[in-house]
What we know:
alpha+beta; DNA Primase, Chain A; 2 domains; 4-stranded antiparallel sheet; 5 helices; 30% helix
Amino acid sequence: xxxxxxxxxxxxxxxxxxxxxxxxxxxxxxxxxxxxxxxxxxxxxxxxxxxxxxxxxxxxxxxxxxxxxxxxxxxxxxxxxxxxxxxxxxxxxxxxxxxxxxxxxxxxxxxxxxxxxxxxxxxxxxxxxxxxxxxxxxxxxxxxxxxxxxxxxxxxxxxxxxxxxx
Length: 166
């Protein structure tokens, strides 16, 4: 039986995680986690520099090797060297093709994941090892103090809810 109930005519109806999964050929479903990967715009890079992250409840990307970033629409526009309007149309068309070929819309298990944050720390005095380390970069104590850099003896990291999920 043919049904059009899952087809869309507005890009806002396309699940944002699907855009990234589909156009980046990701092996895993995006369910709110942050992802670091090799740049799709810089095939020569040796260290992953492209990040997928959640901001204001939506996935976005930042490619540090090419300084590109933005939404799923920006990603498609950059990948295919097309305008934003053409990217929106492509996303809608490709999503509808996906829905028709896969017997319905993908299931969306999206939930912003809490990240680890430093919740407590203990400072200590600078020692000779610290001095040797920083001086190899020609960084002295005045510069460290101006940027509020401190020597730590211990720190505690805890998983906290992002302000976006509260």
